[in-house]
Write a structure and sequence with these properties.
alpha/beta; Rossmann fold; 2 domains; five-stranded parallel beta sheet; four-stranded parallel beta sheet; 9 strands; binds phosphoric acid mono(formamide)ester
Length: 312
C-alpha cells in the first residue's frame, strides 16, 4: 500500500495501516539524526512553508529541521510581523502564500478547523501542526513512535492521559491514534477538565490520579491550557498541583516500576510534573522531542515527495 492522502489534518481521518506506515517511515528516517552530514535529497526542489499563528518551540523547529534534512527549502511565517497586523485574514494570507507555489504548508492556528479549511482551499499538501483544541496529529504520531520503540511494541499497552483533557488537541489525537492501534486509554483529571463526550471515544475515565496511574504502561501528563480556558475551571494552581501533580513519591507509590512518563511540552514544572519526575529515569520527554523530527520528516516525505497522490 502506498500513501494516497493529499493532507494530514487529523489522526481521526487515518486508518491503522496509514498510522503504521508513518511510524515505519519515521523509524527508517531517524538514523539521519546520527549522521555527520544530516542531509538526504528526498525533497530537493520542494518548498515547505511553516504558517504559524500560535507560539511553538518544538513543532515549528522540528518541522524546519525535518524539511532541511530532507533538502527542502523551508520558509517560516509567523503571524506577528506579517500583514496579519494590517488586517489581512487567515484565508487571504494562505491564498497568497499558496500563490508562491509551495509543495507543503504546515499550519498551526488557535481555531479548530483551520487546517481542514486550508486543506479544502489549497492545492498543495497541508499538514496540521495543531488547530485549537481539535487535533495535533504529528504530536500523537511522535508519541506513538516513542512508546513503540521504548516498549518494543504497542499491542495491548495501557495509557493514562492526565490533566486538562478538555482543551487538549494532543489528548484528542492520541486517543484516536491509540484506540485505532489497540491500546487501552484512561483519561483522568478534574471533572471540569474532562469533556462529557470522551467515553464515546472508547476511553475509561478516572477522577483520582492514583486510580488512573495504577498498572498502566504509560502516563501522559498534560499542561493546563489557560489560553483556551474561558472560566475558572480549577480552584487554584496550588490545589490542582496538590491533587493532580505527579511527584516522585506518588509515582513510586502507585505506578509500575517500568512506566514511561510522557509530556508533549511545554512542561509547567511543579504544576503537573515535579522536576524530579520530569528529569528522572521514568521520563522520555526529550526522546519524544527527538522523535518529533523523525515523524515530521516522514510526514513531509510522504505528503511532499510527489504530486501524484490521490486526494483521500
Ligand atoms: N508539543 C508542542 O506542540 O510543543 P510546541 O507548542 O512547543 O510546538
Amino acid at each position: 500500500m502506498g500513501w494516497s492522502r493529499k493532507d494530514l489534518v487529523a489522526i481521526r481521518d487515518l486508518d491503522a495501516a496509514e498510522i503504521v506506515m508513518i511510524l515505519d517511515t519515521a523509524a527508517s528516517l531517524q538514523e539521519i539524526a546520527g549522521r555527520d552530514i544530516k542531509k538526504v535529497p528526498a525533497l530537493r526542489g520542494k518548498t515547505v512553508v511553516n504558517l504559524f499563528y500560535e507560539a511553538s518551540t518544538r513543532t515549528r523547529t522540528s518541522f524546519e529541521i525535518a524539511g532541511k534534512w530532507l533538502s527542502a527549502d523551508v520558509v517560516n511565517f509567523s503571524a506577528g510581523g506579517s500583514s496579519t497586523a494590517k488586517g489581512e485574514s487567515f484565508i487571504d494570507t494562505a491564498r497568497n502564500i499558496a500563490a508562491m507555489s509551495p509543495d507543503v504548508v504546515v499550519v498551526r492556528h488557535s481555531s479548530s478547523g483551520a487546517a481542514a479549511l486550508l486543506a479544502r482551499t489549497l492545492d498543495c499538501a497541508v499538514v496540521n501542526a495543531g488547530d485549537g483544541a481539535h487535533e495535533h496529529p504529528t504530536q500523537a504520531l511522535l508519541d506513538l513512535l516513542t512508546v513503540r520503540e521504548r516498549k518494543g511494541h504497542l499491542d495491548g499497552l495501557s495509557v493514562a492521559i492526565v490533566g486538562d483533557v478538555a482543551h487538549s488537541r494532543v489528548a484528542r489525537s492520541n486517543i484516536h491514534g491509540m484506540r485505532k492501534l489497540g491500546l487501552s486509554v484512561t483519561v483522568a483529571g478534574p471533572p471540569t477538565l474532562i469533556p462529557p463526550f470522551v467515553q464515546e471515544l472508547g476511553v475509561k475515565v478516572a477522577y483520582r490520579l492514583e486510580d488512573a496511574i495504577r498498572d498502566v504502561d504509560v502516563i501522559m501528563m498534560l499542561r493546563l491550557q489557560h489560553e483556551r480556558m474561558t472560566g475558572g475551571l480549577i480552584p487554584s494552581l496550588r490545589e490542582y498541583s496538590r491533587t493532580w501533580g505527579l511527584t516522585l513519591d506518588r509515582l513510586r507509590a502507585h505506578a509500575r516500576p517500568d512506566v514511561l512518563i510522557m509530556h508533549p511540552g511545554p512542561v509547567n514544572r511543579g504544576i503537573e510534573l515535579s522536576p524530579e519526575v520530569a528529569d528522572g529515569p521514568y521520563s522520555v520527554i526529550l526522546d519524544q522531542v527527538a522523535k518529533g523530527v523523525a515523524v515530521r520528516m516522514a510526514v513531509l516525505y510522504l505528503l511532499g515527495g510527489s504530486k501524484g497522490g490521490d486526494q483521500a
